[in-house]
Amino acid sequence: MKPLDDEELRQLLAQWETPPAPTRLRRRVLSSSPRRRVGIPRYLRIRTSVAAISLAALLMLAYWAGAKRSPSPPASTGLASFQPAKNPNLRIVRITENEQD
Fold first, then answer.
1. Does residue 55 form part of some domain?
2. What is the pLDDT of residues 25-51, one digit of tens each?
3. In total, how many domains does the chain have?
4. pLDDT 10s digits, 66-100
5. Which of 1, 44, 78, 91 registers the highest number of CB atoms within 10 A of its CB?
6. Is 92 among the domain residues?
7. DSSP result, 3-53
8. Rounded to whole angstroms, how far apart are CA atoms 26 and 13?
9. Are 4 and 12 in contact (CB under 8 A)?
10. 48 burial type by CB count under 10 A (0-12 exposed, 13-18 middle, 19+ buried)
11. CA distance 4 to 12
12. What torsion do the CA atoms of 21, 25, 31, 33 make, to the nearest 10 degrees?
């Protein structure tokens, strides 16, 4: 079979007729047509979705900001509350030049 040129293809396409669609397909297509949903209106569904996403983002931001904080310093940093050790056991260790290696 030899290949057809554009003119022959156009003539064949003009003669071709599509077969009719089966009735059960027509019923299925028509039954899936959009209907008005019962329940929450669309604009409220969108608003609640945006609100939920915003709330989740704020919670994640608050958690992240709280995790970055450094611990607070001790309440008293002065020497007024200093108390020496009750029983210090001191041990002095000296290293001589020969032991450094």
1. yes
2. 777 776 665 555 566 677 777 888 889
3. 1
4. 776 666 666 666 777 778 888 888 888 888 777 65
5. 44
6. no
7. PP-HHHHHHHHHH--PPPPPHHHHHHHHHTS--PPSSS-HHHHHHHHHHHH
8. 25
9. yes
10. exposed
11. 10
12. -60
**pLDDT at 57 (0 to 100):** 95
Residue 73 inside a domain? The answer is: no
In whole angstroms, how far apart are CA 75 and each of 68, 80, 83, 85? 21, 12, 16, 20
- Per-residue pLDDT at 34: 59
Q: What is the pLDDT of residue 40?
A: 67
* Contacts of 48 by beta carbon, 8 Å cutoff, 6+ apart: 40
Expressed as residue numbers, the domain containing 48 is 40-65
**What tokens does 97 get?**
């030049």
**Mean pLDDT of all residues in the chain?**
77
pTM, full prediction: 0.32
Position 46 in a domain: yes
